[in-house]
């Protein structure tokens, strides 16, 4: 066969098909802040960027020790070191959902865990169900594998609970898993026990495993409870994806894992072997971080989690109370994670043809940037991150409120005035 004689390097389909909608949205939006006002981004889902939230001394010391010991410089088993898997199994075991070290697959962040679950369960042409609004990564990862996503609705007027009949109507013969996210990004919602049970009943009826994104485990406001989905079922096999990213405030460490909960061995031996083989593609997660994980999971004090949650909860209360009084905006009260969704009644802002324009003008005039709902396939909402120093959040909210009042036109009032 004739060899090539010119340079014609193309990008492979897999790379070209790996598209993150958030990046698309951010690149297509005109984001030109008003130079006269300090720019406040309420858009970045990284709790460390504002400097007010950082890991505690116990976490830092665990990393320093891991480096100094010289015991964690080499390759570890691709599914994770024995000590790390054991520590994670202990940290995640709850009544009703026991775990062994061998049920844990250590990954490079929770994203990687989700990626592996999709890759292990779905073939091209098959589909998985994902929430709408929801974390865009599920679609990004699936698309490159040729796996379809079918969205099921969450209900804003019902604390963003799943529309279970809609979910069930989306199931077809090609459906291989239900992706579930609790507490939720972008909604900031936390599901009550009965609702999780109702979802599990649907999964059981259709013999579908659940991929549970529980990266915000235990990040719930006072008076609310996080219930691990695996603790509520012995029948439905569940792959739980978690990590140290959000709760421990160390997204950059890239440490996550899959917990395989499967009382009746419905996943089977070949499925676990498949997960192991996927781990071998990149020879496992960072060894230094793995070396620190047992100490991080055991020594991080409750006061550390409590103080981060206090910041989030104070932000949540302020944003919710402020926007509840702003005509044309309807915040949905969050109960966990680190976000709030705010509805825009776009008909009351006739200056703007779409929520998109609302967001663009908001940046242009007030130098405040929130991610438009379209980033989560949910127009007429925007998402606010609740991890900023409270003073910054307050400043941003005052500006958003003034902006909204400036452009708000209520048809009823106009009519009444005319009479
Ligand atoms: C942040 C986030 C992740 C990703 O976590 P990493 O550990 O940084 O990969 C996964 N799922 C949701 C819903 C998230 O918000």
TrEMBL record:
The keyword Transferase applies. Its EC number is 2.6.1.5. Residues 38-400 form the Aminotransferase class I/classII large domain. InterPro entries: Aminotransferase_I/II_large, NHTrfase_class1_PyrdxlP-BS, PyrdxlP-dep_Trfase, PyrdxlP-dep_Trfase_major, PyrdxlP-dep_Trfase_small, TyrNic_aminoTrfase, Tyrosine_aminoTrfase. SUPFAM superfamilies: PLP-dependent transferases (SSF53383). One of its GO terms (biological process) is L-tyrosine catabolic process. It comes from the Eukaryota. Keywords: Aminotransferase, Phenylalanine catabolism, Pyridoxal phosphate, Transferase, Tyrosine catabolism. It holds the Pfam family Aminotran_1_2. It is an enzyme of class 2 (transferase). Pathway: Amino-acid degradation; L-phenylalanine degradation; acetoacetate and fumarate from L-phenylalanine: step 2/6. NCBIfam families: tyr_amTase_E (TIGR01264), tyr_nico_aTase (TIGR01265). Transaminase involved in tyrosine breakdown. Converts tyrosine to p-hydroxyphenylpyruvate. Homodimer. PANTHER family: TYROSINE AMINOTRANSFERASE (PTHR45744:SF2). This is Tyrosine aminotransferase.
């Amino acid at each position: 066969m004739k060899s090539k004689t010119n340079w014609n390097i193309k990008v492979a389909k897999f790379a070209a098909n790996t598209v993150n909608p958030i990046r698309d949205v951010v690149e297509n939006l005109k984001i030109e802040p008003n130079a006269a006002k300090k720019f406040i981004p309420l858009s970045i889902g990284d709790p460390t960027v504002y400097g007010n939230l950082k890991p505690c001394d116990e976490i830092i010391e665990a990393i320093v020790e891991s480096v100094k010991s010289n015991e964690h410089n080499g390759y570890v088993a691709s599914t994770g070191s024995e000590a790390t898997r054991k520590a994670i199994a202990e940290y995640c075991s709850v009544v009703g959902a026991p775990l062994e070290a061998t049920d844990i697959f250590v990954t490079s962040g929770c994203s990687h865990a989700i990626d592996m679950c999709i890759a292990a369960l779905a073939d091209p042409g098959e589909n998985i169900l994902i929430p709408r609004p929801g974390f865009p990564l599920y679609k990004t990862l699936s698309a490159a594998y040729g796996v379809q996503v079918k969205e099921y609705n969450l209900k804003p007027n019902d604390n963003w609970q799943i529309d279970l009949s809609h979910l069930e109507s989306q199931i077809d013969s090609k459906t291989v898993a239900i992706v579930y996210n609790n507490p939720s990004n972008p909604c900031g919602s936390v599901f009550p026990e009965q609702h999780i049970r109702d979802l599990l009943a649907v999964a059981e009826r259709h013999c579908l495993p659940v991929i549970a994104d529980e990266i915000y485990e235990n990040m719930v406001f006072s008076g609310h409870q996080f219930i691990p989905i695996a603790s509520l079922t012995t029948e439905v096999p569940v792959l739980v994806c978690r990590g140290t990213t959000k709760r421990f405030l160390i997204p950059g460490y890239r440490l996550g894992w899959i917990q395989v909960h499967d009382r009746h061995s419905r996943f089977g031996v070949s499925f676990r072997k498949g997960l192991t083989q996927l781990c071998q593609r990149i020879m496992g997660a960072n060894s230094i971080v793995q070396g620190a994980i047992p100490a991080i999971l055991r020594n991080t004090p409750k006061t550390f989690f409590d103080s981060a949650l206090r910041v989030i909860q104070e932000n949540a209360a302020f944003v919710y109370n402020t926007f509840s009084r702003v005509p044309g905006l309807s915040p949905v009260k969050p109960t966990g994670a680190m976000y709030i969704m705010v509805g825009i009644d776009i008909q009351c802002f006739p200056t703007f043809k779409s929520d998109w324009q609302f967001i663009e003008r908001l940046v242009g005039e007030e130098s405040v940037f929130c991610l438009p709902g379209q980033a989560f396939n949910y127009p007429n909402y925007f998402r606010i991150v609740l991890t900023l120093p409270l003073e910054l959040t307050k400043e941003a909210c005052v500006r958003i409120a003034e902006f909204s009042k400036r452009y708000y036109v209520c048809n009823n009032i106009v009519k009444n005035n005319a009479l």
